[in-house]
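Page 47, continued from p. 46.
Same chain as before, 265 aa.
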Amino acid sequence: MEPFRLLHPDLVPQRREALQHAASVLVQMGLDDTVLSASPVHQRLARVVLASSDVIEWKPGYGVLDAGDDERFGVVRVGGDCGGVFLSSVLIAYLDVQENAARSGTSICEDSWRTLLWAPTALFDHVLRRPQVGMTVLTPGPATGCPAPDRTVAGQRLYLALMQAVRFAVNGVVRAEDDRTLVEDCVTLATACLRAATVALTFAEDVRTEVPSPRAAETFEHRYLWQMINEVRAAVPRARFEQFATALRLLNDVHTADPLMAAGT
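Result:
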């Protein structure tokens, strides 16, 4: 698979205003979350356009100190148009997973697939302040034989992109100050992306082989979430926090065999 562009962790946007221009441009081009329910031909074309430097301005040379996972999964850290890179990386990762699943099916159930596909719609709804009107989900067929060989890479890349989306949403929680509506909107988005990231990891391991699939180590975003969890707890209503914390624990259960301990969770 070709290299996958992902923002340097320090460049992940912190407010939705930083994404609104890029999101509006993608909507005008027909390259927003709705492309995930388009025809395969449209999706392949969208993937080419989203990866083009003529559409999304990006700059190389933003390496990270612990780059083991980046090298393993073909990730290239970049800067540039942070809003455009951020949104396009999410969409490209989804398109790759969908194309992979279309080729050889998946054993992931329909409800989990819907959970996976809800996150990008929730992200664009949040950024553009769109009313939530639902989505159209194209469910792949059942697993048939051996999956496409790049499944693990596609699933792990989507996981990494979704974890940046979680970080963006948590940034919104702690920076929303007294805007209770925005706080709840942000934590709801963070929870949706955590749940989707869990499915992405499950998809990465849906390879039907006895050889264990390589997993991403604890990501920058994963560590950030555990560092910020007490601030999230203080900022959001208890019921919303419990949903967020439960989603984070479930993700951890899939990601590692050992429970990750955090204060108060």
